[in-house]
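Predict structure. Chain length: 483.
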Amino acid sequence: MTRFFKFLSTIRWQDLVDIIINSYILFRVYVLFHGTNAFRVLVGIASLWILQEVAASMGLILTSWAVRGITTAAAIIIIVVFRNEIRSALQVRNLKTFIWGSLIREQAAPVDVVVQTVYQMGKKRIGALLVFPGKEDLGEDIHGGIPWHGAVSAEMLLSIFWPNNPVHDGAIIIRGDQIVEVGVLLPLSQRPDLPSYYGTRHRAALGLAERSDALVVVVSEERGRVTVAKDNSLTPFSEPGELSQLIKRHLNLSDGIPANVQKRERLRLSLAAVLSFLIITGIWFGFTRSQDTIIALNVPIEYVNRPLAYEILDTSTDEARLQLYGSSVLLKSLQPGQVLVRVDLSKAVEGRNVFPITQDNIVLPPGVFLNKVQPSNIDVNLDAPVTKELPIQVDWAGKLQENMNLVKVSVTPETVKVMGGSQILEHVSTIYTAPVRLDSLAKTGSITTALVLTPPSLKLISSSNEKITVNYVVEEKPNGDKR
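Prediction complete.
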């Protein structure tokens, strides 16, 4: 039990948010694509991925490689083959419905008006074919339709299927409260077991039902009977109430779903949500809590919160060697800057300070753990900065020409003020210029040169003193003077 609570203490609130967000994404994928062919293929790809991970963990190299290739190909195939279904699921005009809702139509079809008109056409022996699409796209199964985009009403339906109307023999597509297409041609069923009194309309309705999840309502012109094609079957309906309830269930309208069906639907969604959470939690633990790999990294040490009164004189080392362990996937994906070693100097004093390097000093991404660190301690020598005025000396290089004498030398300015650690400046008595070549001095003149600050931690008080002017006087040696 102690180990369990210790493990829970390692989980951050960011980890919980990470799991919840991805669980909800997986749940919404289920809601959006459930019942479609694309969803079945997604389940198959997920099963292949699990098989690949199991094969890899068991050391089945060839099986893991083969399944990985199949999974990659299947992911591409699902995008190409089921692009229409994916587009239909993602093209939800209401963003709130897409993110949170249960895909109920933004504007529910006036089902009661449709049902009453259907039975009215049956009494008048007016043939009709009405298609209510489901989640799957019908673009590849229907053709020949004429865009309509008219509101559903009894008058509109009667006028479309009136025998003298040029499009009365085709089907209409109803989405929401709109008739979006008329005169649509549907694929014919080739089933040989259909009764002889079922005509072309019934075969067309069943043909579309066999290829998609659409619901098709047929009104027989000869018999006046109302029949529904759904899930590869033709079912006659004599009661308007039963037909209304079926259409509302198909359109996912809650007011048309019996209480037991609503309860079963809520239970299905609840189980899907719990299963999504468990799947994502398992994947998260697999990625972040697996400890199958150990690597070593050399990480530069950062010094933070240095007191303004001190400067870093020197340190025992500039980097720490960390031995890390965790999931191979996470360790391979480590980026520069994700692993940091920081030493807090806020409590440091002047002189030598010893700081231990522990887990508190090291920043690691989630799922990566520290195994060992070298060195375990680091020495940091701090010094208080002081100001000191030092004379400038020219750093001569080379040899003067044999017939010349360097008579006089002066520098402007003669001294500079520098700032640095008190321990460093204690041993510095002169600031030298950059090397000046003696063999370049042919006549009296001046040269502008720079200063060389040694050690580099020293700083000039004024930037105007970065350039130094060297004035010199040279004369020819008297005849016979060989010195």
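Summary: The chain has a mean pLDDT of 82.
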